[in-house]
Amino acid sequence: MSSPIKHYLQFKDFTREEYDYVFARAKWIKEKFKRYEPYHPLFDRTLVMIFEKASTRTRLSFEAGMHQLGGSAIYLNTRDSQLGRGEPVEDAGQVISRMSDLVMIRTFEQDIVERFAANSRVPIINGLTNEYHPCQILADILTFIEHRGSIQGKTVAWIGDSNNMCNTWLQAAEVLDFNVHVSTPPGYEVEPERAGLFGTHHFEQFADPMEACKGADLVTTDVWTSMGFEAENEARMKAFADWCVDSDMMSVAHKDAVFMHCLPAHRGEEVTAEVIDGPQSVVWDEAENRLHAQKALMEYLVLGRIES
Ligand code: CP
Ligand code: NVA
C-alpha cells in the first residue's frame, strides 16, 4: 500500500523534526542559489497555483521557485477558470491533481483547501486562507533563525488582528515550543478553536500592546483588514487605532528584537514608517525567504527526505 499523501494545509501538519529538516534544506538550497549553482530536483514536475485572492509575494515565490527547481508552474484564478463558475471543489481536486505534481491554493475558508486535498492525488499547499498562512510563518521562522538562532523558548509579540497570520504563529509556538504574546483590540481576540490549537498554553493575551511587547524577541503585526473582510474596514480602522507598532513598543522589547511583517504593509496604520523602515526591521529578508523556504517545502512534499 502506498503511503498517504503529505499535504501542507496548516502549520501543525508537520512535526518539529520535519521543520528541522525543512529549515536545513532551505538553508542548503538558498546557499546553492546564491552561488548561482543550478539545482533541478523537480525537473519535469508541474505546480498548479490557484488564486482566489490577490497576491504578489506568494505567486512570485512559488512560480520562480518551481522554475528554479527545474519544474514549471501554471497560474489559475477564479476569474478565468471554471472555479469561479461554481465547479465543485471536489471535482476540481480530482481533475487538477491528475494533471500536476503539486498544487498551491490561496482561497477563503480553510474548508475549501481541506476538501480539495481530500480529493487530490498530489500534495496540496495552503497559500493562505482566512484561517491560516503557514508558508509565511515558515519563511518568518527561517528568517528568525538566520538572524537570531533557534526560536525555541523565545517570545513573539503579535500586535493587531487575530487573523490567519496570528493563528499560524500560535500553532507554530506549540509545534516549535516558543511563546506568543497577543494583543488585539477588544472584540478581536484569539479564538483558540479557529486557531486550531492543541491547548498547550504557549500564548498569553494582553489588553495593552505595550505589555505584550515587553521583553519580546520578535515583534510582528499585519494589516488591520485582511482580504475577504473589506466590509469591516471602517469599523476596524477605528477599533485598531492604538494597535500601531511604533518605536515606543519596540523600545520595551528585547534590545535585539527584530520586527517582521508579512507584507503588504500600511505605514501609519499597523506600523509606523520609523519601525518598518528602521534598523530592527527584517521585512525584506523575510519576503525573500518565502522563495527559499517554499523551495524546500516543495522538494520535501514531492520527493520526501533527501539524504545528503
Ligand atoms: N505575504 C504575502 O503572502 O504576500 P502576497 O499577498 O503578496 O502573496
Ligand atoms: N492577513 C493578510 C495577509 C496578507 C498576506 C490577509 O489575509 O489579507
Q: What do these coordinates show?
A:
There is one protein chain. With 308 residues, the chain is an alpha/beta fold. It has two domains: 11-133 and 287-303, Aspartate/ornithine carbamoyltransferase (Rossmann fold), CATH 3.40.50.1370; 136-284, Aspartate/ornithine carbamoyltransferase (Rossmann fold, 3-Layer(aba) Sandwich), CATH 3.40.50. The protein has twelve helices and nine strands. The chain has helices at 16-34, 57-68, 89-98, 110-118, 134-148, 164-176, 192-195, 209-213, 233-239, 247-252, 273-276, 283-303; strands at residues 46-51, 72-77, 102-106, 124-126, 155-159, 179-183, 203-205, 218-221, 258-261. Strands 7-6-5-8-9 form a five-stranded parallel beta sheet. Strands 2-1-3-4 form a four-stranded parallel beta sheet, with helices on both faces. Helix 7 links the parallel strand 6 (179-183) and strand 7. Helix 1 crosses helix 12 (283-303). It binds phosphoric acid mono(formamide)ester and norvaline (NVA). Phosphoric acid mono(formamide)ester is lined by residues 55-58, 128, 136, 262-263.
How many E-type strands? 9
Name of the top-level CATH class of the largest domain: Alpha Beta
Q: Biggest β-sheet, characterized? A: 5 strands, parallel
Structural class comes to alpha/beta
Radius of gyration: 19 Å
Q: Report the order of strands and helices.
A: HEHEHEHEHEHEHEHEHHEHH
Range of helix content: 40-55%
Strand content: 5-15%
Mean pLDDT: 97
Specify the CATH homologous superfamily of the largest domain. Answer: Aspartate/ornithine carbamoyltransferase
What's the CATH architecture of the largest domain? 3-Layer(aba) Sandwich
Shape: globular
Number of helices: 12
